[in-house]
Amino acid sequence: MNKSCSDCLKKCVKKEKIFKKKICRKPNPLDWLSNIKSPFESQKYEIVEIKFKNDRKEFFMNRERIFLDQGDIVTVETKSGIGYDIGIVSLTGELVKLKIKNKATDLNTFKKIYRKSTYKEINIWKYVKKKEFSTLFQAKKISRNLNISMKICDVEYQGDGGKAIFYYTAENRIDFRKLIKELAFHFNIRIEMRQIGYRQEAAKIGGIGSCGRELCCSTWLRKFRSVTTNSARYQQLSINLEKLTGQCNKLKCCINYELDTYLDAIKDFPDFNRKIHTEKGIAQCMKIDVFKKRMWFSYVKNPNTWFKIKVNKIKEILEKNKMAPSLEELSNINIIQKTELTFKDLSI
User: pTM to 2 decimals?
Assistant: First the structure.
């Protein structure tokens, strides 16, 4: 059971009911060192990981030595130094130290934690959070009236309500100076425009994938790896863009999930482009079965008839072809009629 997630849900129900809708959509990491006391309490690690809207996480310095636990609501310093922001503690202690080691970060750039949020600050935060949907709707309307080729997909208010971050996607570089003036005049706050990719947009909006489950990027996936058509080819998937693309109009992230397993299995196969010489002529590879170690070959002169042969047998034939063309011929047993092609099985 994920202790941190259960604790967070309890605090969501008791303190902030709005958490269940948006902020707790992704589970917190399990702090398996939370119940272990450090022998050096005076040297306790000061850096804390804070989570904001849409699972945006940043590190902050706890210079005041405030006792913090996962799920606590804290008031922190902003990047600009103007006003304050509010977030939720997602990770503390030694696990933060291990996480920072994997990232090239400068500890001097981390902002500080002011205090645990007061009741008044939390009420202001809840109020500005409720305004985000209407602000997004009005911002889209303003952008459309200015005829700017961009899509505003999300809005995030600062904890004190003095600033709003507008996330947008665009194919080309956009001059949105007029838009910033209109937004600042209309909402009477400081504006920041932040461009994101199409995968990040899908993660913010959410939805249901073709598998019938909620999108991976909006539930548990935290890092986006590049996906190419070569990943699909290694897994013998047909290059059908309608089936391979997700709601972000990019190749699905799940294509990479089993890629390493296929790459390890393909190492035992000979080169697919190599042809074999038999008594009846030259045959070429048409298809492979990665996990059953099978390859389908057909004669160049008769491509509609396929022969299923074990990988070990193909390797033997290729070794014989190095010395002289083989006098063997592909088996003619177990003929299976299928539409345009005739498949034949050689289980040797």
Answer: 0.68
